[in-house]
Amino acid sequence: MNNIEIGLAKRAREAYTLDDIAIAPSRRTRDPHDVSLNWQIDAYRFEHPIVAAPMDSVMSPASAATFGKLGGLAVLNLEGLWTRYEDPAKALEAVRGAGESQGVTVRHLQELYNQPVDPDLVTARIKELRDAGITVAGSLSPQKTVDLAEVVTSAGVDIFVIRGTTVSAEYVTSEGAPLNLKQFIYDLDVPVIVGGCATYRAALHLMRAGAAGVLVGFGGGATHTTHDVLGIRVPMASAVADVAAARRDYLDESGGRYVSVIADGAMGTSGAIVKAIACGADAVMVGSPLAKALDSPGQGVHWGMEAAHPDLPRGEVVSLGQVGSIEEVLFGPSSVSDGTMNLCGALRRSMATCGYLDLKEFQRVEVIVDI
């Protein structure tokens, strides 16, 4: 690993973004129809490795039902507008209209999300997902997990997602009870996906705490301003490869327990998805391409919870435009050539071009640094 001397008192690791690397085909090619995109976490199997991000511009109960029936894992934000408002239509319209005119203010977003989360609405939204017949996954921040975990699990969630800018094995706070992930996960009867993290050591701690999946990165790539506000940013190619190494070592350490690595952030194109899996990811969490779908709640306008933080907002509302339905974003046909539609088709073709049959095999593909 190359270290760079910034000055006499500080050295830094050299790391790579997904833009810095490329796939290098070096063996036989295949018919894309022979390639499998199947992915499994715990007892749940999916037809492709794309996870819908828990963002209000991406997933509503209705769009989650659509996405789940198309073979993917849809995660609903259980601190979003759907659990704050019985009918969030007016709030959604306010954000979409302001975003399209580029006139939305952070203060306006903060006001909309100032409405408290209603536990009864959390239960109702989970029931909607269950009634749709899909795998039910809901997301909470580390700060809200202790308060709402019993509500969420009692409502019948299948997969519990704890997602934040950074999540550690123990969230310590002087206000209220701390979140000890190892004890928390042990007490649950459902698999837990947790993140973000960006280093080998942090990921290994989360795996030892019992996580079924680890989110790599900090999410919200197209909308967040975390680097500007907190100085935090992770080059995703290196981060995914580091966490994949933690998965390998934990597999040996635990005697065969496999933890899924899920790339979360900078997944805006099919090329980025391909390269994340090539670096070792089992699945990817996607936001902005799905926000551009005609049947998404954002309808071309995209934002994340970071933008609505009451004290330190770290995001913005962006207008991305619309391209097609959720099904077309996933499976085509594509009407654009920028890698934001037919995400599964692109991944399947890339794997076939490199000669691999499934996702685990494709993690062994040759990668070159292209800078």
Structure description:
The structure is a single chain. The chain is α/β, with parallel strands linked by helices. It has one domain (20-369): Aldolase class I (TIM Barrel, Alpha-Beta Barrel). The chain contains 14 helices and 18 strands. The chain has helices spanning 61-69, 89-100, 106-112, 119-131, 142-155, 181-187, 200-208, 226-230, 236-253, 270-278, 288-291, 326-331, 343-354, 359-362; strands at 3-7, 10-13, 21-23, 39-41, 44-46, 50-52, 73-77, 137-140, 159-163, 170-171, 179-180, 192-197, 213-216, 260-264, 283-286, 301-302, 318-319, 367-369. The strands form six sheets. It has an eight-stranded parallel β-barrel with strand order 6-7-8-9-12-13-14-15, surrounded by five helices. A two-stranded antiparallel ribbon has the order 1-2. Helix 7 crosses helix 9 and helix 10 crosses helix 13. The protein is globular, with a radius of gyration of 20 Å. The two termini are 17 Å apart. The mean pLDDT is 90.
Q: What's the CATH class, please?
A: Alpha Beta
Q: What is the typical, i.e. mean, pLDDT?
A: 90
Helix content: 25-40%
The CATH homologous superfamily:
Aldolase class I
**Strand pairing plus helix content: what structural class?**
alpha/beta
User: How many separate domains?
Assistant: 1
Please state the overall shape, judged from the principal axes of the Cα atoms. Answer: globular
The helix count comes to 14
Q: Unreliable segments (pLDDT under 50, ≥5 consecutive)?
A: none
Distance between the termini: 17 Å
Beta-strand residue percentage = 15-25%
Query: Could you give the count of β-strands?
Result: 18
**CATH fold label:** TIM Barrel
Largest sheet: 8 strands, parallel, barrel
Instruction: Please give the radius of gyration in angstroms.
Output: 20 Å
Q: What's the architecture, going by CATH?
A: Alpha-Beta Barrel
Strand line-up across the major sheet: 6-7-8-9-12-13-14-15
